[in-house]
Amino acid sequence: xxxxxxxxxxxxxxxxxxxxxKIVPQGREYTVERFGRYTRTLKPGISFLTPFVEGVGRRIxxxxxxxxxxxxxxxxxxxxxxxxDAIVFIQVMDxxxxxxxxxxxxxxxxxxxxxxxxxxxxxxxLDEVLSQRDQINTxxxxxxxxxxxPWGVKVARIEIKDLQPPPDITNAMARQxxxxxxxxxxxxxxxxxxxxxxxxxxGQKQSAILQAEGRxxxxxxxxxxxxxxxxxxxxATRLVSDAIAKGDVNAINYFVAQKYVExxxxxxxxxxxxxxxxxxxxxALVGSIAGIGELVRSADNTRQTPPPPRPPRAPAVPPTGA
Length: 322
Fold this sequence. Notes:
Number of strands: 8
Strand order of the largest sheet: 3-2-5
Shape: rod-shaped
Structural class: alpha+beta
Order of helices and strands: HEEEEEEEHHHHEHHH
Radius of gyration: 61 Å
Number of helices: 8
Distance between the termini: 211 Å
Largest sheet: 3 strands, antiparallel
Strand content: 15-25%
């Protein structure tokens, strides 16, 4: 009988000791209550409680948590019904406030987010709601963070997860987007054609400028060639004139041969003549050409050989019988 009592006493003592020792895991905090009243908060690690006097009240998760806000219908400022849902990232900063200042922390934050989401979206038009999600998130974060601060909770961020307008509005938006993209495509094609036309016109302009410069250069060269030909012709005429003045027969043959060749060339170039009859003696032509060659040689000799010195004049003899 004594042995049984001893065993019961040992078991009771073990239970009391184990109940007094509390091990708090990392990322959590426990509140301690003494006769139902909060006294302190146990941090991660091992702690000791007073048996039969103190006990663990609430086990609070101190890690960042994600709350899913259910989808709901929200009426925008321009009377369009939009289905909106969101997610909220929270972290408990004060375990005692989170445990004793609100009954159900997750449910309270979820409902608070839903009501403020309806308020924020209801003050905006549909286009603003669809294009300004960051502004909605910022406004919700400010409101929810201030509201949950007495609960010992820090709202890290709020994100709009999905926005779904009605099907007819979605179809209208799709048609509008298609029309806008087609308009941009037409404008882009028109700009491309404009740039191409400008490039072609610029190329034609440069080509015309280059062609004009080429024609100007060719005309200048032609004028220069004609000037040189005229100078040569004038020099030849002068030489022939000097030879004729001296009584050289070859000069006369040069003019006759030149006129003969010109007349014969015009006769041969006539488009109405298929057969050319030359009723002249070839010997006379050969003689004229030989005369021209002799005239050219004599002109060259005249240029290369200096004229003989003139004899001195005899002194004048005075008349006799003066």
